[in-house]
């Protein structure tokens, strides 16, 4: 497929021509006739377009809000929190008549929910014949009011904030002290006005000029590629191997595994995060981070989000959104099996190699390849770049080199980890430089233009609708807020790989550690044994893999999920490792055989010491054996592997030492002794089976509840609403309090449960409630007995549920809340008829517990019909495809009615509601009181599968309508910085 072509001859048809032969300077007509000049010219045009593209103007909306005190309290939750400019006015008469301390204007609620994080707004208050002004937490001072009628104004922009009396400055504070704005609030009902312009710098669309530059750059790139094809026309070789299209049995097996994994495989930790961003793109007008960083653009790494957004317009269901990664898996397998393997040597002709390749591919793709994250895209892109470089080396053509550079740039534009796509060029630097020096038919300057233009074309993907200034500002915000780790903390990634969490799950360990073992074997074997491996391509592949691991150092986060970028490379190196560590090349070198077996034993033991864990919903219904390292007869498999393998290695070393001490020639190793490659292949098969079959078991045994498999089945059956289909909500906890079994429950205390007061008791002293009659559904364990605790139980506090029957107490269970506010759910034992609470605690207890209840449930799809808008927290956003994410548009945030959150013990959603993280929903949260509604999962009512919250405004709020204009701004225009509270300095 990639056979080398004959070298170029300076006297051949592609040899340089004398520039004076045609007489005169270059012209477009001559350039069109000469493909070498055309390639250089088109390359130069591509570079110029790439430079101009970020600087080109963009279209930006400008939203202006106006408010008067007569409108009453108003919600104007800004995002970013400060306006571009603000003007507030009040008449001196209004200020004089107001009692001292009365608030004339505040841009944050005077009385906000205590549970909400505060913002620092503008506050104008009356003060004994003067007006005191505060902004952004800074007291600007007091301004005396002159006699007679006058107008007092506060004008704030990024440069300064001024207090003026009839237009004359009375107080001026230089620097950026713009206030945060959540709304407009006043204790008076007239004489106060507010006007502000929102900061919509990120909500831009491509302008006609920018689009024209992009089209010109794309056409120039295409022209450059065509010209390079004409230059290389004498070096044509077969592009695809014979019978590349013919299906094979191994292809069917790989496709079946991918299809099964698509239907049942767990989600990744970031599927919800990306789903929220993707589904918000249409309403937001750009790809912004809808959960933190002030919704700053994901540029320059966001072009695959745009593709996912278009894909989601067809359906947002979980199976549909996971389909692209499955298709990418098929493409990765096709590249590996049809193009990469034939390049690696004659050993691939052995019948077992395709099956080894399938195992290697599945070893990487199952733990890393499914979901919305960019790793599948990077894996395919990197593998395609490797093939382009290998084709360049094999054919001495320049066109594949340019195509490879284009693909490397596009892969880098996916995610910072995509930088690894350039490593094949470094691994093949020597033959590539030799090739370029040998191509005397190409002038240096046009060749340089081509080599720069190809990767520079990625700029068209990086900022399609953002300006350069907006992209740089988004990078500044992300850097200031943080959330990443510096390059020198890269060892954290490998420490996490060895943790007993889903970060170090057994499948991830098998892929990464197994590939490193294979890489070591390949590099060792290339000079020492006859393995049938093509030394050049294999060396470049392994060096590229190791360089790719090094490039992960520059990724801002250190999660083990990023190893998935190497899935294509890793699978190919595993196949090479199988050849390098097989018996045939090692039999002639017994010491190497023993060393390889020893290293394999250690790596295999570390792999099987991992847990079979997945994040979030993937961990639901996990069998007990998956929460521990694999065991046989209660002995860890890792121990068995280490002892067995170590024993064999010890015996072989003793045998070698004995023979050497006696001067006896080293005898051949027993032929029944397994080589390192088949030993580790058994480990890979076992790990793969454990991962897949465990998920299959969960899918079968819990098909009446929510799993990714049941979600797929429901979607194919016309019910695409995901987890929402299987959740019921308890709107009124007070309605479910159980009836007393004779008499009444006296002396109860009210307990606030989601805004509803439920009768309860104090966890103090020794007492017991009356007996309550269990609901019929509780007796059959269809519903749990629920007790909500409020406050923290102190050491020594005893809170118990006692179940009874006609004979008395049948069973006593201690209640152990996980959180200060928690729903404790217990299934009644068989035969129980009644239940009561018993308290055994010190008298100074500070916790409360509700009386036992049987929850009265409403299906979530009835409470929030499909299409309802809700604020979807990122851990669960992927699983509620029928709910519409609240939009973030025109520099403002919404005031949602509903929030869908993860289980109570998941605190990772706080970033969206805290200003120091640039949370987009900080300002709306200030305007509401949050009321929790517990949810119950069909088939597993004890599980806290998520929470539903109603957002109730703290007071009636008007919603002013903005006046929106659109203007064209240059690519470098920047007006101040959006300020992140607690991070960016004030003033």
Automatic annotation (TrEMBL):
It is found in: Cell membrane. Residues 1-12 have a biased composition (Polar residues). The chain crosses the membrane at residues 211-229, 250-269, 320-341, 353-370, 401-425, 445-463, 506-526, 538-555, 567-586, 592-614, 635-658, 678-700. The keyword Cell membrane applies. Residues 818-977 form the Arabinosyltransferase C-terminal domain. Residues 207-657 form the Arabinofuranosyltransferase central domain. Arabinosyl transferase responsible for the polymerization of arabinose into the arabinan of arabinogalactan. Belongs to the emb family. This is Arabinosyltransferase domain-containing protein. It comes from Pseudonocardia adelaidensis.
């Amino acid at each position: 497929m990639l056979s080398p072509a004959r070298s170029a001859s300076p006297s051949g048809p592609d040899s340089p021509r004398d520039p004076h032969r045609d007489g005169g300077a270059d012209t477009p007509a001559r350039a069109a006739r000469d493909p070498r000049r055309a390639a250089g010219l088109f390359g130069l045009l591509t570079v110029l377009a790439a430079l101009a593209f970020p600087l080109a103007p963009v279209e930006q909306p400008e939203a202006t809000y106006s408010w008067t005190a007569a409108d009453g309290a108003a919600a104007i939750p800004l995002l970013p929190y400060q306006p571009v400019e603000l003007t507030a006015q009040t008449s001196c008469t209004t200020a004089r008549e107001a009692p001292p301390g009365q608030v004339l204007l505040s841009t944050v609620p005077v009385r906000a929910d205590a549970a909400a994080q505060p913002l620092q707004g503008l506050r104008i208050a009356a003060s004994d014949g003067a007006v005191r002004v505060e902004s952004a937490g800074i007291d600007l001072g007091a301004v005396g009011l002159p006699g007679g009628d006058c107008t007092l104004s506060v004008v704030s922009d990024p440069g300064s904030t001024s207090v003026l009396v009839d237009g004359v400055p009375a107080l001026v504070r230089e620097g950026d002290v713009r206030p945060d704005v959540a709304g407009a609030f006043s204790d008076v009902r007239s004489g106060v006005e507010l006007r502000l312009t929102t900061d919509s710098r990120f909500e831009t669309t491509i302008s006609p000029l920018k689009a024209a530059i992009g089209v010109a750059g794309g056409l120039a790139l295409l022209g450059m590629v065509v010209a390079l094809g004409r230059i290389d026309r004498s070096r044509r070789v077969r592009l695809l191997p014979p019978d590349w299209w013919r299906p094979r049995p191994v292809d069917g097996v790989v496709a079946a595994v991918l299809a099964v994994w698509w239907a049942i495989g767990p989600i990744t930790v970031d599927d919800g995060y990306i789903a929220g961003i993707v589904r918000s793109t249409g309403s937001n007008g750009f790809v912004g981070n809808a959960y933190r960083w002030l919704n700053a653009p994901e540029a320059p790494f966001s072009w695959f989000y745009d593709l996912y957004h278009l894909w989601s317009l067809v359906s947002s269901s979980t199976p549909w959104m996971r389909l692209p990664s499955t298709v990418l898996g098929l493409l990765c397998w096709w590249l590996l099996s049809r193009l990469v393997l034939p390049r690696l040597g004659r050993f691939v002709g052995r019948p077992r190699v395709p099956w080894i390749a399938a195992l290697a591919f599945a070893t990487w793709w199952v733990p890393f390849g499914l979901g919305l994250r960019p790793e599948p895209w990077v894996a395919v892109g990197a593998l395609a770049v490797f093939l382009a470089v290998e084709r360049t080396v094999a054919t001495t053509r320049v066109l594949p080199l340019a195509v490879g550079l284009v693909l490397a740039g596009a892969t880098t534009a996916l995610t910072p980890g995509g930088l690894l796509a350039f490593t094949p060029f470094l691994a093949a630097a020597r033959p590539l430089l030799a090739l370029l020096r040998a191509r005397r038919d190409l002038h240096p300057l046009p060749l340089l233009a081509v080599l720069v233009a190809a990767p520079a074309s990625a700029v068209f993907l990086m900022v399609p609708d953002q300006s350069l200034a907006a992209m740089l500002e988004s990078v500044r915000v992300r850097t200031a807020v943080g959330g990443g780790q510096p390059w020198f903390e890269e060892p954290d990634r490998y420490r996490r790989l060895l943790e007993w969490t889903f970060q170090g799950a057994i499948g991830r360990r098998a892929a990464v550690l197994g590939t490193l073992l294979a890489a070591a074997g390949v590099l060792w074997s290339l000079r020492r044994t006859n393995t049938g491996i093509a030394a050049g391509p294999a060396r470049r592949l392994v060096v590229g893999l190791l360089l790719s691991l090094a490039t992960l150092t520059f990724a801002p986060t250190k999660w083990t999920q990023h190893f998935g970028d190497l899935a294509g490379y890793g699978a190919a190196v595993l196949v090479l490792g199988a050849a390098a560590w097989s018996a045939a090349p090692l039999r002639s070198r017994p010491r190497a055989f023993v060393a390889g077996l020893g290293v394999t034993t250690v790596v295999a033991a570390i792999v099987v010491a991992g847990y079979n864990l997945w994040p979030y919903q993937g961990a639901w219904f996990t069998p007990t054996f998956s929460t521990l390292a694999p065991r046989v007869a209660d002995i860890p498999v890792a121990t068995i592997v280490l002892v067995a393998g170590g024993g064999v290695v010890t015996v072989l070393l003793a045998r070698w030492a004995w023979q050497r001490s006696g001067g006896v020639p080293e005898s051949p190793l027993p032929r029944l002794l397994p080589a390192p490659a088949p030993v580790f292949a058994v480990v890979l098969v076992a790990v793969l089976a454990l991962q897949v079959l465990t998920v299959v078991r969960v899918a079968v045994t819990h098909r009446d509840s929510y799993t990714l498999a049941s979600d797929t089945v429901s979607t194919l059956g016309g019910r695409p609403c995901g987890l929402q289909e299987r959740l019921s909500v308890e709107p009124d906890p007070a309605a479910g309090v159980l009836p007393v079994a004779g008499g009444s429950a006296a002396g109860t205390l009210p307990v606030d449960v989601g805004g509803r007061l439920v009768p309860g008791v104090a966890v103090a002293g020794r007492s017991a409630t009356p007996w309550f009659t269990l609901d019929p559904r509780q007796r059959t364990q269809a519903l749990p007995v629920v007790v909500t605790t409020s406050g923290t139980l102190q050491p020594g506090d005893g809170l118990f549920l006692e179940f009874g029957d006609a004979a008395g107490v049948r069973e006593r269970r201690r209640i152990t809340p996980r959180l200060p506010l928690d729903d404790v759910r217990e299934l009644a034992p068989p035969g129980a008829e009644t239940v009561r609470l018993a308290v055994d605690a010190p008298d100074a207890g500070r916790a409360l517990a509700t009386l036992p209840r049987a929850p009265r449930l409403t299906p979530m799809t009835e409470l929030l019909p499909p299409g309802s808008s809700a604020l979807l927290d990122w851990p669960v956003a992927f699983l509620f495809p029928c709910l519409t994410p609240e939009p973030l548009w025109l520099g403002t945030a919404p005031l949602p009615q509903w929030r869908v959150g993860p289980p109570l013990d998941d605190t990772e959603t706080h970033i969206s509601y805290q200003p120091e993280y640039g949370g987009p929903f900080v300002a709306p949260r200030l305007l509401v009181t949050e009321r929790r509604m517990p949810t119950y999962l069909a088939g597993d009512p004890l599980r806290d599968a998520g929470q539903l919250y109603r957002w109730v405004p703290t007071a009636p709020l008007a919603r002013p309508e903005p006046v929106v204009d659109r203007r064209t701004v240059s690519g470098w225009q920047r007006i101040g910085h959006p300020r992140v509270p607690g991070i960016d300095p004030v003033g």
